Each structure stands twice: as structure tokens, then as C-alpha cells.
């Protein structure tokens, strides 16, 4: 999966969502929407791990919910990064990938 392409596609979807629901996507919205999605991921995680009521969901549904919320968090994070003009690939390379062991060393 190409990160830039994903960011572009998510941006188009978010723009349409904002138009349909008359949402102003300002800096606060991007940050708060990410926080909302992290909260939903937390709830799905707690339900899956047995630390919250499963509300009638099967283990498979609970796992699927976690996956869906991980996707929401990732997409909202890409939207926030895009809004703040952060090059996610470059930042990941500089912060994380520099710690990869050097091949042949």
C-alpha cells in the first residue's frame, strides 16, 4: 500500500463526508476527530479483551471491530498529518527506520 496514495484517497473521502454533513474541517476538528477514533478503538479493545461488556458481539465481531477502529485511527491520523503538512513517510524514516539494523554488518 502506497502511503501517499492512501492519504490522497482518504482526503477525498473526508472532503465528501464534510460536505454531506456540513462539517468545517479546521485544525481542531482534525485533532478532535482523531481523539474520537482513538476512544472508539479503546472501547473496541476493551470489549475484545473482556474488560468491557461485549454487548452481544461474537469474538469474531469483536476482532473485526478492533480492525475497523484501527483503520479509522490510521486514516484520521493521515488526515491530521496532511492538514499539518507533515510528511509521514519522511518522519517515520527519520524517527523509526534509522534504528533498523544495517544489512551485512
How many domain units? 1
Low-confidence runs of at least 5 consecutive residues: none
- Going by CATH, the homologous superfamily would be MazG-like
What is the general shape?
flat
Tell me the fraction of residues in β-strands, as a range.
Answer: under 5%
What does this structure look like?
The chain is an all-alpha fold and 105 residues long. The chain has one domain: MazG-like (Helix Hairpins), CATH 1.10.287. It has helices spanning 3-21, 27-48, 59-83, 88-95. Helix 2 (27-48) runs antiparallel to helix 3. The longest helix has 25 residues, at 59-83. The protein is flat and about 45 Å long. The relative contact order is 0.14. This is Pyrophosphatase.
Keywords for this structure?
single chain, 105 residues, mainly alpha, Helix Hairpins, 4 helices, 70% helix, 0% strand, flat, Pyrophosphatase
Secondary-structure map:
Blueprint: H1 3-21, H2 27-48, H3 59-83, H4 88-95
Helix pairs in contact: 1-3, 2-3
Summarize the structure.
It is built from four helices and no strands.
